[in-house]
C-alpha cells in the first residue's frame, strides 16, 4: 500500500506539469510516513498551527448568518454551548457537520433538542482505547476535563498509524488532532500544552465513554465476592468491596448523588440478578433493587451522598429512616428482603444493613 500511495502522489504532485497546487486533508500529519521520497516542501497546517484557521470549521459570523437565514437566531446560545469551542490559532470555531445537522433537525421540529451527532458519526474508539491501555489511570484527567477544567499534556504532531496507540501521550495527541480536544491558550511545541473539551457534545461523549468502560470492566471482573456479601447481609464487606470498585471508576460531576446511582447500577448490571432502578416498592421508590430468584431473595439499596466524612453517620440514619418509613421490605414476592443504606463520600462507600 505504501508503494501504491507513494507512486500515486509522486506522479500526481511531483511530475505532473498540469497541476499547480494540491491539498491533502486528514487527521494525522504524513511527513513521517516515508511516503514522499522525491516529494518535499510540503506546507502543513494543523490544529496547532497558524494559517487557514477558518478552514477547520464555521466561524461565529458564519453560524449567525446560517441561523438568520434559517429563522433560528434564538438558538444561537444553545448551538454555541453544544457545538462551539474549538480554538485554532486565533479563531474560535464551530463543528460544521453538527451545526448543519442540528439546523436541519430544527427545520423539521422547531423545538428539537441538540443531539450528539458526533457519537452517531464517529463513535468513541479513541477515548475507549485511552482508558483501556491506561486501565483507567487517567481518571483524574478525565474528571478534570468533564468538569470543564484543562489538563497539561505533551503533544506530538508526528504520529503515524503504527504508533498512535503505543502510549498515553500519543492518544492525547490523537484526541486533539481529531477534534475531541482543543487547545486552551497557545500551543507549546517543546513543553506541555493546555487542553480542554470544546463543548457540551464532546463532554457528554467523554462521560458516556467513562460509564461504558466501567460497566464493561465490572462485567469482566469476578463479582462473586460482591454478590456473596449482598446476599449474606455482610454490610462491612460490602462497604469495602464497593469502595474498591469505586477507586477504579472515573468520577465526575463533583461526586453528585446521581453519579453514585449510575455507578452502582453499572456495578450490579450484567449479572444473573436483574437490576431495577427507581421502581415502586412498598410505599416508595428505592434507588436500586436486585432479585435473586434461585434463593428467592431481594436486595434493596437506598443511596445518599455525604458532603463531608463527618456527615456519613447522619446520612446513614436518613437512609435507614426512609427505608423503614416507606416500608421498602414489604413484599410477598420474595421470602427474604435485605435492605441496605449506602452513603458515598468521594471514593468511599459506607453500607449499613437495615
Summary, kept brief:
The chain is of the alpha+beta class.
Topology of this structure?
Layout: H1 2-13, H2 60-70, H3 76-83, E1 86-88, E2 91-93, H4 96-108, H5 117-122, H6 125-134, H7 139-146, E3 151-153, H8 168-177, E4 182-183, E5 193-196, H9 200-220, H10 224-231, H11 235-248, H12 257-268, E6 275-277, E7 288-292, E8 297-305, H13 312-325, E9 336-345, E10 348-353
Parallel strand pairs: 8-9
Antiparallel strand pairs: 1-2, 3-5, 4-5, 6-7, 7-8, 9-10
Helix pairs in contact: 6-8, 6-9, 9-12, 10-11
Task: Describe the protein.
The protein is of the alpha+beta class and 354 residues long. Helices cover 42% and strands 14% of the residues. It has helices at 2-13, 60-70, 76-83, 96-108, 117-122, 125-134, 139-146, 168-177, 200-220, 224-231, 235-248, 257-268, 312-325, and strands spanning 86-88, 91-93, 151-153, 182-183, 193-196, 275-277, 288-292, 297-305, 336-345, 348-353. The strands form 3 sheets. Strands 6-7-8-9-10 form a 5-stranded mixed beta sheet, sandwiched between helices. A 3-stranded antiparallel beta sheet has the order 3-5-4. A two-stranded antiparallel ribbon has the order 1-2. α13 links the parallel β8 (297-305) and β9. The longest helix is centred in the middle third of the chain and has 21 residues, at 200-220. The chain is elongated, with a radius of gyration of 26 Å. The relative contact order is 0.08. InterPro entries: PDDEXK_9. It holds the Pfam family PDDEXK_9. This is AAA family ATPase.
Keywords:
354 residues, three-stranded antiparallel sheet, 13 helices, 42% helix, AAA family ATPase, PDDEXK_9
